Amino acid sequence: MPVNESFVGRTFDPVGPYAVDAAMIAAFAEAVGATDAVHFDAEAARAAGYRDVIAPPTLAVRFDQLSSRAYVQDPDAGIDYSRVVHGEQSFVHHRPITAGDELVAATTVDSIRSAGGHAMISVRTEISNGDEPVATTRSTIVVRGGE
Amino acid sequence: MARQFSDVSVGDSLGTKTVPVQRATLVAYANASLDQNPIHQDEAFAKQVGLPDVIAHGMWTMGAAGTLAAEWAGDAGRIVEYGTRFTSMVVVPAGGSELSVTGVVKSLDEARKRATVELTATAGGSKVLGRCQAVVQLD
């Protein structure tokens, strides 16, 4: 089944809230080789003006993926995940993800383009803490064409 | 302390950073990011699907490269935008590998005291990220 272009413009129900804690932030920061004390030391984070320890910017992908799952796993979307390659990723941070956040994420399908037998799907996920916007993530995945 | 806008010029180097990556690093990243795709952990599986070996998550590579911009900024919370294309893979054999990252200031936004920086990440002699840019809020 080809990728279903009628999903363009659809926004899926928000997922969450997901609690963010210091252990989640420290584990992620350590895994990507981040050394800034604002990830590990609440005192250092407060001295820099934050409420508590903050995450590296790319932790937002965790919530992007939790949210976009509803789309990519929708049987009507026509996405064969074994043929998916991550093409592009970007983040806009309205503020850093911070320990104590209760994040909610909602994914919208922005565009689906076909090129050379492949489908390029761009999705956007808005991540918020209550009414406060935290980050906007954009992913482009490529679904490789058939044999 | 975040870097001062007045201390920054277009063309400035961000310095260099080498981030080692072992298979255990990828397991830790998988647990922290929730991306448990076996191509990033299981050599037999990766080879079975036609990959040369275990490969790093593209998002691990993006995250690791971004730490250079965060260290240059002086405060990781100052990365207000960050984006990349995934152009090549980081192969991680049993003995591990490493990601080499360099960066340069591409442009400055005087009104908002923001710098756009471009990062270059290489592994095994290949550039692995394309158009990898961050916008950094300076003081």
UniProtKB/TrEMBL annotation, chain A:
Highest taxon above the source species: Bacteria
Ranges where the FAS1-like dehydratase domain occurs: 6-136
GO biological process, any: fatty acid biosynthetic process
GO molecular function, one term: (3R)-hydroxyacyl-[acyl-carrier-protein] dehydratase activity
One Pfam family this sequence matches: FAS1_DH_region
Official protein name in the record: FAS1-like dehydratase domain-containing protein
Organism, as annotated: Nostocoides jenkinsii Ben 74
UniProtKB/TrEMBL annotation, chain B:
A single cellular component GO annotation: fatty acid synthase complex
Domain MaoC-like, residue spans: 10-120
GO biological process: fatty acid biosynthetic process
Highest taxon of source: Bacteria
GO molecular function: fatty acid synthase activity
InterPro entries associated with the record: Fatty_acid_synthase, HotDog_dom_sf, MaoC-like_dom
Family label: Belongs to the enoyl-CoA hydratase/isomerase family.
PANTHER family attached to this UniProt entry: (3R)-HYDROXYACYL-ACP DEHYDRATASE SUBUNIT HADB, 3-HYDROXYACYL-THIOESTER DEHYDRATASE HTDX-RELATED
The protein's name: MaoC-like domain-containing protein
